Task: structure prediction
Amino acid sequence: MKKILPFLFLLAAFRAQGSGFPSLKLGVDARYAAMGNAGTASGFDASAGYRNPAGLIADRRAEAVFTLHRWMQGVKSGFLGLAFKGRKSGGSFHLLYTGVPDIEYRTAEPSPEPAGRFSSTEMTLGGSVARALTSRLSAGLSLKFYYEKIFVEEALGFGGDFGLSYAPSERGIRIGGAIQNIGKTGRLASEPIELPLAARIGIAAPVAIGPGDCLVLLDAVKEKDSKLHFHGGAEFAWRKLLFLRAGYQTGYETHGFSGGVGISFLKTRLDYSMMPMAKGLGDSHRFSVNLVL
Result:
């Protein structure tokens, strides 16, 4: 029976009434998860196509990221992202997978043992492109393929994201906005499945502190059929080698605070984040490996 709890939670995550694919609301990499899953205005990295594709031209390099997310009694997610940049353009590919294993089911007749077990799967495959419109403004577009399976029922969908990124000054401050998961899916067991449409706007501000640098992020997030939430966090980087992070998300019954650490060497950065969940749900743990190519 213990597997039924995370399964039901997955379907009703964040109280998103009438929407499917709840894993799309959970964020993807450990760095931004530690900072409250903010980052709509943050710059180039291999997960930018997932957050805001317009951020894919904020730097001149290529990067790859792999993340393993373990939460709620064995539920696992994996994320793989690859980003690259040209002179005035950029692009990325990403794959997000979430699996809920060993869900028990019973027939109409009560029994101490389940009649069997099944699993739930969600997968999103996306490609993103970005273009500099001016020296300070860029726009980005993501196209996505969605797949969901519960027991033997399956649903497919197509959609995407649109984002903008603006640098109002030379001080490194950025403002970003994105509309995520615009699209449509088929039915799952004759029931309509809606994508978790969301609008996000955020700001990223670098601050110099003593021997290190600090990045402050703040997002406002409005999901369909849900109230406005604020996601915020900060990252302190000591000589670009050691990173300490913390964040908070408002208005959720299941979680709030988050935190994490990172360490960088050569062209590799290892990140870890932890988010305490409500009683009985366990904690959320993420591990990410970022490679500058």
Notes: The chain has one domain: 4-292. The helical segments are 4-11, 30-34, 48-51. Residues 4-11 form the longest helix (8 residues).
